[in-house]
Amino acid sequence: xxxxxxxxxxxxxxxxxxxxxxxxxxxxxxxxxxxxxxxxxxxxxxxxxxxxxxxxxxxxxxxxxxxxxxxxxxxxxxxxxxxxxxxxxxxxxxxxxxxxxxxxxxxxxxxxxxxxxxxxxxxxxxxxxxxxxxxxxxxxxxxxxxxxxxxxxxxxxxxxxxxxxxxxxxxxxxxxxxxxxxxxxxxxxxxxxxxxxxxxxxxxxxxxxxxxxxxxxxxxxxxxxxxxxxxxxxxxxxxxxxxxxxxxxxxxxxxxxxxxxxxx
Length: 264
Prior knowledge:
The chain is mostly beta strands.
């Protein structure tokens, strides 16, 4: 039988650990499902058995943390919800965890935006992350750099490290600089800035987390999927203490976020 794990604060108050996460060198944290601790006699006992959801209790009163926020099921890209990102010019590392039900055939000529922005000047230029011809790609101008093969409903962890000049997809490292376009306020989560005029967003995309760090390893942004006290669905930045809801002002019924299960 498992015993309970408690951690105390500076005031001597101990609280039970419900969820435990351990990070890797890329800054991606994964949940510890089962933890054992030994005593002086060498006997190990189970002290934690997790259920698979993110740690709760980090949002202000009235907010409900959820496992993910999905951008909807509509077929018209311009009517899907998105979040306009704040500028984080000191950030040098970026990490996002997502899955999608969007199809991306190998012969598809369309870039399905997940995060980033798009410009047009005689040609289309894409920046950020998108699905293209069955791959999750880092987008940089006209280049579509494959990070990993894409499969619907698979969870992906993408990490850009501009200082180390690496891009990591589910633990597979590519030695190539991701640049710094991902940290400007042109970027959209769940799409690409400027995508209404013929661009496309990857629909039915679930985002589980998004983080940015500065050169010293300090978090400068951490999005937690949630529902705010008014019932709006979006992301709460626990670093800046700001809620980011739907930036799309369309009144169409397809323009709504879908919240995942509540985190207990």
